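Researcher: Hi, I'm a grad student and pretty new to this. My advisor asked me to get structures for two proteins we've been looking at. I'm not sure of the right format, so I'll just paste the first sequence and hope you can take it from there.
Model: That works fine. Here's the first sequence with its structure tokens right after it:
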Amino acid sequence: MTVQTEPAVGHAFSRAEIGAFVDEVVVPRAAEFDRLGRIDASIVAEFAARGLWGAVLSVADGGTGAGMTALATVHEEVGRGCSSMRSLLTVHSMALYALDRWGTEAAKSRWKAHMVAGAALGAFCLTEPEAGSDFAALQASARREGDEWVLDGHKLWVTGGQLADVLLVFARTAVGPAAFLVDAAAPGVRRIPVEGITGTRGSQVAEIVFENCRVGSDAIIGPEGMGLAIATGVLDIGRFSVAAGCVGILQACLQASVSYANKRHQGGALLREHQLVQQIIATIATNTRAARLLVWQAAQLKDAGSPDTIMATCIAKQFAATSAVAAANDAVQLHGARGCSDEFPVGRYLRDAKVMEIIEGSTQLQHVLIATDACQNRARVVDVE
């Protein structure tokens, strides 16, 4: 997909500004995106006009952003409006971050300005049919032939894979795993749309097959064999975005539940007057605030360059994702039979939230990482100045 536009000037992306944009442009069409299974090109252009595709990079780095706390606000508010759109932001941000940090100067010259402007969208290709996301079992391969790399492999569950222009691909080389930026229009790249998924149905997921796909020597990202380290850094950005998006789902569940409880009567009283309903709303409100603070802590640690941000992001993602599923489930329950219909968005929130417990590291994986870190570091306290 190509959108000709100039990037917006970097700024702090205030909640009021982004929230108003989401309410005006995203929320009214979120159900349509979910139903049709695709995002309209006009919305991609709207995001580009506001500089949102480049928000993961600071202005100093050639992007449009103003730090990770501002990025969290963007991805939370977009997630509140439409998890499918936020998912596209996530994978694009991951690919752009990788390009900026590890890409060759030739690759940056080719892609960076277009990706910042939203004129070229990125996607992340790691998961495979047999290996899943296990680097030790990675089957996709890349071999040198003269001045080219030749890629072969099969990638699954590629968010945005149907419309992406540039693919961040992980493949095994003679030295070890490596990362490559591949033009999605290159010969040897075949896309297979994935339909009927549970949630984020508008994110245009695809399987992508690489068959004798030839790319230039400048396509490799970082040193050969450094793929695992690059994936770790890129996944940290993805998990951060997902965590922020889950806060958005929590906020949306809270707003929907409060709105319904304020107007629906049951047993001669408004729903909000029933104590069990109050318990549901109080729990969602508390978890929304707690998840937001965890995301902000991870953001501040990222902006400070602290290595503690990796674990802070894992904790934020685990808590926000599980809380979003619980909140959406309660919001559906509060709405009764209407919550199971398309009349209200809470059913979509539940489907989208469940996906968040799986992508960018499942809840169970986060539990392992968090417990291992706690045991190795004797559960020390991490302060944020």
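Researcher: Oh nice, that was easy. Here's the second one.
Model: And its structure:
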Amino acid sequence: MRFLVGCRVVGVCLLMAVVWQVQAWRYGAQLEQQAAAQVQALNQQSASALHQQQVQQEQRLALEQQLSASDQQHAQELNDAQRHQAALRDRLATADVRLSVLLDTADTSRGCAVPAATPTGGVVHAAPRAQLDPAHAQRIIAITDDGDSALIALRACQAYVQAVAH
């Protein structure tokens, strides 16, 4: 009988060891499945993050190209305006062009009445004008040049802000 009890104890121990081993295999399989699912989820997250990074990089590159083209356009506008102003200054310096202002012939309060009628023998039927001193004309051209440059710079800034905001 002792032998039978001993065999039963050994049998129960073996059965418990087998059950424990089966449960360990199941648990191990579950852990492997969870690990595989986690690896797959991490791979999907990495792929998604990589795709998002590529999209953002493409958008940044497109924006940089757009800003570069806009910058070149505004630089060309500024260069053209400066060339035009320089040509105008040169023409003023050589007396090729003269700046003049319209005179108000009706304003006699300033003490410099100008006859409203054209003298006999004259062919000019336009309003009377006074020629500006060349130095003053150069200063006026310089002021307009600064104003043109400021407007071109303002348009460049506005274009930059619009490009970056979109």
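Researcher: Is there anything I should tell my advisor about the second?
Model: You could mention this: The chain has a mean pLDDT of 83.
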